[in-house]
Write a structure and sequence with these properties.
The protein is of the alpha+beta class and about 500 residues long. It is built from 15 helices and 17 strands. α5 packs across α7. This is Protein-serine/threonine phosphatase.
């Protein structure tokens, strides 16, 4: 994960006010830039992106003043490619999202980008651009406007299918996270279009025709699906007769899908979604269930969407407490929509995106069973409690909102409400069923539960010699260091 600032290429006009320029601290040279705002007369000469492997998402509200605190990856391949693509994009247009596609030819790197346009009348248009990178040059191989008639679906093999009238385009991102990023964006964009009463038919992308790839053999690759010919028949609507005939019986099908659903959830919670593809997931699933899952591709795709959707949205644990992911922490509109004022970052690898806009606390820990998380729970408790007492909302996040952050939220609930571990875990699980604290964190939660129960007994009105003995047994049975106990002033 990285935050990168990429320079825009257009030359400023004579009307550009010198005061509208800002220093871009992510570049070694004194590169001047001014911030993009659709409502402004001037267009930014730099954009800030939140990047993970194969994916870049523009920050809708870049906290420019905080950029100098963040490490920049000037030498990364993704940033270099973003720069080359932005050199083509018109100053008034926004490249809001980019995903890398799986390789289809040697020495050719391809990206699928979302380009947004706002014309002088305030009319917004969106299109998918396919970029071809060969060496240090980049051209456009494909432009697909997102319009009322556009449809999007999964292809059953780790990619997405976009249809415009009679045209069909196949895109296969390099990872599940990249696939989900572009898939859910197009879905949201179509929802906006369908609720709008104005037509969004546009000739705007035609302005980019001069940048189209001249090599017909390269442009032709955008019309080829990566799916193997033997699998082409799998790209069919759910419920196709051939799929039905492959399944023995309705009862067996229910049992099989229940088994796959459980194993699939565990697999997706345990892997890095920025590194694995749908094929990797299916291979792991076959190892778990012990049979070929090819006939169930459509079912697997649907379940993956459900799981990714759960990971994509922050979960409301209480009115003042949300549990989520790094993506939630970077989503300005979502944060403001949920009235978030405090952000608790339980990671080593994720930046604080808006240090001048929210109150932050960062706990520098990794998601490993050996990580000492218990020693931080007094600090995290006070931070969450402060947000609650101030009438604000706090987002607690790690990378995927599964282990580190969920363990911290469970620990907070145990102390704040006096709930035992099972009750706190059940409450959080009910509101975010993808959580799975790792083995080490579960042991620390059990230790913390023992500490809280011992403290409760010590202050109980019915405290007596018998309860003293029980309390001592609990206290002495807790296998934890003095540091742990000192950190948990109760």
């Amino acid at each position: 994960m990285a935050l990168v600032s990429v320079q825009r290429s257009p030359s400023p006009t004579k009307s550009d006010d010198e005061s509208s320029y800002l220093f871009d601290s992510c570049d070694n040279l004194s590169v001047h830039s001014f911030r993009r705002r659709h409502s402004d007369a001037h267009r930014s000469l730099s954009d800030v992106y939140f990047t993970v492997k194969g994916t870049a998402v523009i920050l809708s509200h870049p906290d420019q003043a905080g950029l100098h605190h963040r490490s920049c990856s000037d030498d990364t391949e993704l940033k270099r490619h973003l720069q080359l693509m932005l050199n083509i994009v018109h100053p008034r247009d926004t490249m809001s999202r980019v995903v890398r596609l799986q390789s289809i030819a040697e020495n050719l790197i391809r990206y699928l980008a979302v380009i947004e346009n706002m014309n002088e009348n305030g009319h917004r248009s969106v299109a998918l651009f396919g970029f071809d990178h060969i060496g240090n040059s980049v051209t456009i191989g494909l432009i697909v406007p997102i319009i009322n008639s556009t449809k999007v679906r999964l292809d059953g093999d780790g990619g997405i299918v976009v249809e415009n009238f009679t045209d069909m385009f196949f895109f296969k991102p390099v990872s599940i996270q990249a696939m989900w990023s572009i898939f859910q964006y197009v879905h949201k964009e179509l929802a906006v279009i369908h609720t709008s009463k104005t037509s969004n038919e546009t000739v705007w992308p035609n302005e980019y025709l001069n940048f189209m790839t001249e090599d017909d053999s390269i442009r032709g690759l955008w019309l080829i699906s990566l799916a193997e010919e033997a699998q082409a028949g799998d790209i069919k609507p759910a419920g196709h007769q051939e799929v039905v005939l492959e399944r023995a019986s309705a009862s067996k099908e229910v049992h099989t899908e229940t088994l796959m659903r459980r194993e699939l959830r565990q697999i997706m919670q345990s892997v890095d979604l920025e590194e694995v593809t749908s094929s990797d997931i299916r291979e792991r699933l076959e190892e778990k269930v012990g049979f070929v899952v090819k006939p169930y591709k459509e079912f697997i795709d649907r379940e993956m969407l459900v799981i990714m959707g759960q990971l994509d949205k922050p979960s409301r644990i209480f009115d003042y407490l949300y549990l989520g992911t790094e993506w939630n922490a970077s989503n300005w509109d979502e944060l403001k929509g949920n009235r978030v004022g405090y952000i608790l970052n339980i990671t080593k690898e994720v930046d604080n995106f808006y240090p001048n806009q929210f109150v932050y606390k960062k706990i520098w820990v990794s998601d490993e069973a050996t990580t000492e998380l218990l020693i931080h729970w007094q600090k995290t408790f006070k931070f969450i409690k402060k947000a609650k007492d101030n009438g604000s909302v706090v987002l607690v996040h790690c990378k995927k909102g599964i282990s580190r952050s969920s363990s911290t939220v469970i620990a907070y609930i145990m102390k704040e409400y006096g709930w035992p571990l099972n009750a706190a875990l059940s409450h959080v699980k009910k509101r975010r069923n993808c959580i799975t604290p790792n083995e080490g964190f579960m042991e620390q939660l059990q230790t913390f539960d023992g500490i809280l129960q011992a403290s409760k007994n010590r202050h109980s009105a019915v405290f007596n010699s018998s309860s003293i003995s029980k309390s001592k047994i609990i206290a002495t049975s807790i296998t934890t260091s003095d540091t742990h106990l000192k950190a948990c002033w109760l």
